[in-house]
Design a protein that fits this description.
Its cofactor is pyridoxal 5'-phosphate. It comes from Urochloa decumbens. Pathway: Photosynthesis; C4 acid pathway; Amino-acid degradation; L-alanine degradation via transaminase pathway; pyruvate from L-alanine: step 1/1. It is a single chain. The protein is of the alpha/beta class. Helices cover about 45% and strands about 10% of the residues. Helix 3 packs antiparallel against helix 14. The model has no long low-confidence stretch (mean pLDDT about 90).
Amino acid sequence: MARKPLDYEELNENVKKTQYAVRGELYLRASELQKEGKKIIFTNVGNPHALGQKPLTFPRQVVALCQAPFLLDDPNVGLMFPADAIARAKHYLSLAPGGLGAYSDSRGIPGIRKEVADFIQRRDGYPSDPELIYLTDGASKGVMQMLNTIIRNERDGILVPVPQYPLYSAAIALFGGSLVPYYLEEEANWGLDFVNIRQTVSEARSKGITVRAMVIINPGNPTGQCLSEANIKELLQFCYHENLVLLADEVYQQNIYQDERPFISARKVLFDMGPPLSREVQLVSFHTVSKGFWGECGQRGGYFEMTNLPPKTVDEIYKVASIALSPNVPGQIFMGVMVNPPKPGDISYLKFSSESKSILESLRRRARMMTDGFNSCRNVVCNFTEGAMYSFPQIRLPPRAIEAAKRAGKAADVFYCLKLLEATGISTVPGSGFGQKEGVFHLRTTILPAEEDFPAIISSFKNFNDSFMAQYEGYSRM
């Protein structure tokens, strides 16, 4: 009998090559155990509200009124909603005449793109053009749109930091390009090593690959580092000399847990450097409402901003955006409120400020607790989480554990993470899902579980790790 088009053997090979570890084998096993009644702590994905983080009040009030505009006609609306939320909802409804049920412009509502441009100007000190800002369904859709535009065939290479967020490897495989991994230096707090990066580019070119773009994730996912201004300058000079587009994934810019290295955008550093770089380096920057102290992952609000892209290219990107007709409108409104939050003197300011501060301060404490917890464990070494939402400890697995994993037909870190899941209910992602140096093993966990649960989670991890190491190392604590 002839094969049918949707039989596995007949599928697009690029789809079959695509892997996404964050929702991979560990997650599927955790879901099975949960169905069997086991308590699972899902630390595999940066999904704050799923782990108990409360939504911020003001943006939810604004979107609630936009979703149900008849509430604005209710004489008691002022008893339920503060006046500034009512005013803001009316503002957004005036920008979207068809309401939240109508398509918007394919690039996003012009008035909200203007709010994003104003936010970028306040942040960086340089004007931003709303015409070069596209609103998207989360940052991921924007990243995929740009990679699809850049990749022409399998000989086009994209430089991606390893360990990397698997959106990049998955999307590059899906669009038929080549992943060119550059390794971050764990011993130098996951910094960039340009000697290594130059060598990587030379090797790729010697194999006939045209390296066209470079990705940075700052603050880092899964590694949690914040890049210094000096590192970003070197990065921009490198992109200028090597003729690369820089894709700056800056979705964790609000998640900073130390004072030595604040977030600084690639765009600001580029404009600070002045011509010729500021006029020539092609840069696309990404942001989202899913991270920071907002954590609105399910709302799918995001944007990308294009710098130094020719008008004809922008037209082509618009054409591709138009195929999807419109980014979701509630997500756009969340983005509007994120970039234009309540200001001092507004009725909702004190509550908004107090909620935001409370979440960020708790994340800062959790980043420290998680790092210290891992570093107190046998054969575990972890850099401090300076930013983002993750810890990425190195697990020094004994040779006997690596052998046992081989016998079980598993990668060594997958073997360890499955044992951890079965013993404790803690669902993590093995380091191999993000890429790591040969013979080195990691796992990624979020720092998002409720703060009061941290002592129990860390104790549970420590007990598991001690017994695992005792079993495979012949080591036991007296």
